[in-house]
Amino acid sequence: MADSGNAPKPSSSVKLVLLGEAAVGKSSLVLRFVNNDFQENKEPTIGAAFLTQKCNLPTRTIKFEIWDTAGQERFASLAPMYYRNAQAALVVYDLTKPTSLIKAKHWVAELQRQASPGIVISLVGNKLDLTNDGAGDGGGEEGAAEDSGDARKVTTEEAKTYAEDEGLLFFETSAKTGYNVTEVFTAIANSIPETSLKTARGPNASHAPSRTEEQRVNLNGPRDSGAKDSCAC
Amino acid sequence: MESLGDTLWDVVICGTGLQQSLLALALSRSDKKILHLDPNDFYGGAEAAFSLQDAESWAARVATGTGGLFRSASIVRPEDATGSTSRAYSLALAPKLIHARSALLSQLVSSRAYRQVEFLAVGSFHIFKPSQDPVQPSSLARIPSTREEVFSTSAVSTKAKRLLMKFLKFVLNYESSPQLDLWQQHADAPLTQLLQQEFKVDSELQAYIVTLTLSLDGKITTRDGLAVIRRHLSSMGVYGPGFAALYPKWGGLSEIAQVSCRAGAVGGAVYMLGTGIKAMEKVGEETELQLTSGDKVKTRLLVQADDNPSGQTETGISRLVAVIASPLTSQFEASVEGAPRPAVTITAFPAGSLSTTSGKASEYPVYLSAHSSDTGECPLGQSVLYLTTLSIPDAKDILQQALNAFRGVSGDDQALQVLYQLQYEQLSGSKTIQTDGSTITLPTPSLSLSLEDSILGPVHEAWEKVMGDAAVEAEYMAFSDREGVMDDDDVYDE
User: Fold this and answer.
1) What's the DSSP call for residue B263?
2) Can you tell me the distance from the alpha carbon of A203 to that of A200, in angstroms, rounded to the nearest whole number?
3) Domain that holds residue B186
4) What is the pLDDT of residues B284-302, one digit of tens each?
5) How many domains, in total, are found in chain B?
6) Nearest neighbour of B380 by CB, restricted to A85, A205, A215
7) Is residue B351 part of a domain?
8) ipTM of the prediction
9) Can you give the CATH number for the domain in which B183 is found?
10) What SUPFAM superfamilies does this protein's entry cite (chain B) (predicted)?
């Protein structure tokens, strides 16, 4: 759907990195968000992958530059080059696997220690379709429910409390059904301070006068400012 | 999962400096089995960018004599005056500018790696004019380097304008017939000789022209000097009005190195930081490497960089990185209408324009590269100044004098408090690629202040060795976008 042909909304790039244990569904979340698609038995990501997707907010457009890292990366040498200068991080765990939440907490600690100050972190419990909450109206906490076919091992309460303590956004999602996936990215887009988007991305750009990527030099040649961005495909 | 030792690697790349990283980018679609190591626990090698804390541990390591090409690193930080977190800084070890006509940019575009780099404009070049008498204070003059600027400048006399115009016109076609005859007899002599004898240019104007070459000793040869100035002139306006060079946001070449390594990782290369090579042994066609991590790996080829100083008389450069508590607003104004606001400007202090505390005139030029917070290298409201001069015993003193002189004339009325200083020396080494059986050693990173295309040749050569016969049909650094990456200009979602 095209915008109503008015002046183009300001558009900004946001670098986002996905972190989390192997097989929690990082790539599947991205695939759902970018292509609205899901693959059963997806191959593990090798190294990393890079994808982009735009997210339209009422007043601006956010272009996500998504770095999806391999959860099984052995030498902890890749993540630093992805979260460097990242403005947002999606730390994913599998809510049927308690150890994956522990790994997620490690990632959160590492981000808080090493990443750009002011990075927006969202904690995401994926695979909600495997629980009794299904991928329906979401929400309610469950007790032990093995007998009812509920594979949930991490309660909403536990993860939510942790997220609140650490100042993280928190969502439970299903990449398989698509439940809550767009919401995660929209919430991140909304949480990046508008001021920090104006000069350019980065933690140091707050309180800046309003400019939108005015300084970024385009290697595809000088282009007429904004005009091209406004046309819908 | 296979262990490291079970794989026969096609190539082990050691080091993540610019050249090794570009090699990883070049090989990122080759399906070769690549193990990319770095003995450092950071990316970028001699082209790294550091937070304040990183810089501190780096300086401490350099002080123990294990800094490879670096020595004499020291930090002055008055009582945590920066007031911001360490991670709000990204201080570049190699803050080089990249001319618009650089072949590196073409390679970044054809390999699609440019999409992940944010390029900023490098603004005007200035020259420092020391005070001649008490009435006339020191000042900065902008170097006119386009026809329009020569016309409009008030920094030089009408006569000088005419000479400068004549010279710029000459440089644009310096390789064709009538021009060729004029300069060839001076080819290996300093450019200043040509300027003086053939163009009757006075010493002040000579300094202007030499500054455009960023020559570290100020004695660049006519042959090299003309090439560099032509590159500068032909780069003007390529990516927009009013600027000839670019600078990658977040620490210059460090960012290019990391973007290249990311491309390598996306292509399946395995990355290990903090891991070097302890020993190597030739086993038949293969090389067995013992890593500092304790692992043993087998590889067909090893690519490393020469991190040993050459020990030649040509010692190296001395650097001073200073964080200033001012946005230096007047430094970063667009020079012409419609130009992007520059994030980097250059100021040259010609030989003789400064003097040491003991009153000795400076022997070599000092170059100062001022970076605004738009580079992401410091928080808003601050700037980073990178000063460079040839390493001589007085260098440290001269750099401080240049810093003080710059603070005095930079046209910013705020008190330019210095929040942080990092000083170090960087040495030069081998300039050529060496191949010894299955080991390829890339040249030592150059000390020049602008990126030279000559660093790209050895990377291409190493790529050909790794690719073997496949290099014939494969196109170098020419890739299409990976799936899932949209083009900014033709996709717009609903």
Assistant:
1) H
2) 10
3) 146-235
4) 889 999 999 999 999 999 9
5) 2
6) A205
7) no
8) 0.79
9) 1.10.405.10
10) FAD-linked reductases, C-terminal domain, FAD/NAD(P)-binding domain
